[in-house]
Write a structure and sequence with these properties.
This protein is α/β, with parallel strands linked by helices and 383 residues long. It contains 14 helices and 13 strands.
């Protein structure tokens, strides 16, 4: 038995390369919670808990993720057998309600630790990879048409991305459609153009919006209306040829089953963090597969650890109709992995090695960890 010795959490604040504009906020910083599970045999597993835009996107924040792990999850798992991950997931499910990102971060570290002890990848623990490269989208989120067009052309020329998602919903509907149309006209022949509304539209706006987006050649629209309105989402799915993707409505297998039961969406954006972990994420994937719903690997804009974890799981999926959005590390000014994930030939590539295939750059963590930066600032202020 490999006992869990202790669980450590660190908030790391990483500046973004530019303002990332969403319907509910503009991000200039991404804060991640790095989790280390240390085992009695000296082995260690790492995980990451990341949300979007503080608490403007969802109910969890970096501070709440850390608190949930330190105060509730760590004591529950202390001294238990780290090899029995299904049992540990059950302990977390029964002992901590909600908090899927916190639970995912710890579960990821458990899978990483087990895989490292066995000398295999995390993908092997989920049946083995069927692909080592996955199509990867890039989000154009400056909000300025000319800036986004220039960025898209640069990405296509560099063969880094030819799938682009636009964040809309912050401006008037007509302005958003005009913005998307300009980008479709400029690069639509060379790329797939998609939009993410992040629940910002009413049903009436969504009807006009989907019609306009369909007419200008957009391939897919993500979560156009509120997550609670599944019947309305179904009406949009049934009413238009453009693909409708569920995102925020998916919070694990139970919600995925509700959406799949009436086929209220054409595509699932599956996020391991939003699902509550890799195991629950795999269950959401299985529900989509059984219902004939397309799959897309979504992101909470994780840094390298969380992105590597998602890559390990999605590498085991035979049909990934809509590719991935696992570009999170590219949005950050600083890389936290000693060997960065590889993005080229319009794909993100599965990292090699045992566990997640991700090793931490300890210097970068020390530089940007929140507790250290606050201490440094306090010393500077006193001097």
């Amino acid at each position: 038995m490999t006992k869990i010795d202790r669980i450590e959490t660190t908030i790391v604040d990483l500046p973004t390369i530019r303002g990332h504009v969403l319907s509910m906020t503009t991000m200039m910083l991404q804060s991640i919670v790095l989790v280390r599970v240390k085992f009695a045999d000296g082995s260690e597993g790492i995980g990451e808990g990341t949300s979007i835009g503080g608490m403007s996107y969802g109910a969890e924040s970096p501070e709440s993720i850390k608190s949930a792990i330190d105060t509730y999850i760590a004591p529950l798992l202390d001294g238990r057998d780290g090899d029995q991950i299904n049992a540990l997931i059950d302990v977390m499910d029964r002992g901590v309600k909600g908090n899927p990102i916190a639970r995912c971060a710890v579960e990821t570290a458990l899978w990483d630790g087990l895989a490292k002890r066995l000398g295999v990848s995390v993908a092997r623990l989920f049946g083995g990879s069927v692909r080592t490269a996955m199509p990867v989208a890039w989000t154009l989120a400056s909000g300025n048409s000319e800036t986004d067009i220039a960025e898209a052309r640069e990405m296509i020329a560099a063969r880094r991305h030819n799938i682009f998602k636009l964040k809309i919903g912050k401006r008037a509907l007509r302005e958003d459609i005009a913005h998307v149309a300009a980008i479709c006209d400029a690069v639509g022949a060379e790329a797939s153009i998609r939009v993410d509304v992040n629940q910002a539209w009413s049903l009436t706006d969504a009807r006009w919006g989907l019609r306009g987006l369909q007419e200008i050649g957009v391939d897919l629209v993500e979560q156009p209306i509120g997550a609670d309105h599944i019947r309305q989402l179904k009406s949009l799915t049934d009413g238009y040829e453009i693909a409708v993707m569920a995102d925020e409505v998916l919070k694990g297998p139970s919600s995925a089953m509700r959406v799949a039961a009436d086929r209220s969406a054409d595509v699932f954006a599956v996020k391991i963090a939003q699902s509550g972990g890799l195991k629950r994420g795999a269950e959401v994937i299985a529900i989509a597969q059984a219902a004939g719903i397309g799959l897309y690997a979504g992101t909470m804009l994780e840094a390298g650890v969380g992105t590597a974890a998602a890559l390990q799981l999605f590498s085991t999926v035979p049909v990934l109709d809509w590719g991935t959005e696992l570009f999170g590390p590219l949005l950050l000014q600083h890389e936290i992995l000693s060997t960065p994930l590889q993005y080229h030939d319009f794909a993100v590539h599965l990292p090699e090695g045992a566990g997640l295939g991700a090793d931490i750059d300890e210097d970068k963590i020390d530089q940007f960890r929140r507790d250290r930066s606050r201490t440094t600032h306090a010393v500077a202020a006193r001097s």
